[in-house]
Amino acid sequence: MTCLIIEDEIVAAERLRDMVMHYDKSVEIPAVIQSVKNAVAWFNSNPPPDIILMDIQLSDGLSFEIFEKAIVTSPVIFTTAFEEYTLKAFKVNSIDYLLKPIDYDELKNAFDKFRKSSLGLNVYKYPQQVFDKILQSFTREYKSRFVIKVGEHIRIVPVEEINCFYSIEKATFLQTISNHNYDINYSLDQLQDLLDPAKFFRINRQYIVAYAAIKDIVQYSNSRLRLKLLHNENKDIIVSREKVQDFKGWLEK
After folding, report:
1. The CATH number of the domain where 222 resides is what?
2. Does residue 207 share a domain with residue 98?
3. Mind listing the pLDDT tens digit for each residue in 203-238?
4. Residues 179-196: tens digit of each pLDDT
5. Range of lowest pLDDT (2-6, 71-75, 129-133, 168-172)
6. How far apart, in whole angstroms, are the C-alpha atoms of residue 76 and residue 54?
7. Which domain holds residue 152?
8. Where are the alpha helices (DSSP H) in 119-222?
9. Three-state DSSP state, 230
10. What is the CB neighbour count within 10 angstroms for residue 56?
11. Which of 164, 160, 143, 157 is nearest to 209 (CA)?
12. Higher confidence at residue 77 or residue 94?
């Protein structure tokens, strides 16, 4: 079996190579490619591999562009740090997708799925409505600023200046990095759909925090985490127990 690796991070590419070799030492890796441009050139001058491990975000663009510029007939296992790319990945020959940091057992399961499919077993059918929903999130533009009314004045707050959003007694507030708090007409549920998930995370029912605002993370009781945010003296910003694992994964993206 031949496995082509398309990954622009050298350390990540070496880790993928090691995991593939651990899975099956007989697998041949014809190349490790780091860009859309080089991948297109490779596909245009080499026979197709049996399977491809392909990062979605490469140094010169999204790997989906490869399919627009070259004929790719091999099944693909995508790797990504962002779940919003999931559906588009499945629309282009995808067997599976792996979220970074990649776990060996998940890679093994993806390869096992490929081997079953190569025997004629269709193991990766997905409803069209699932594709449509994820593709919609892939093309979504996230909110870049909030317009705040302060007395008779209107203030524009870019998301880069926001520490967190929080709710108190059914009201929602925005806190800036300069420690100003403003009442806004959104619920936290609504904000989750409006904010870039790479920059903001909902740690519990009361708080959505900005990645850039996290100053310190401390182990807390009952397997929870306590956060210290920049310019914020609140000692009760707690990552709920059921959110801890997802939160840790979000920090590593």
Report:
1. 2.40.50.40
2. no
3. 999 999 999 999 999 998 888 999 999 888 887 899
4. 899 999 999 999 988 898
5. 129-133
6. 7
7. 145-251
8. 128-138, 188-194
9. coil
10. 20
11. 164
12. 77
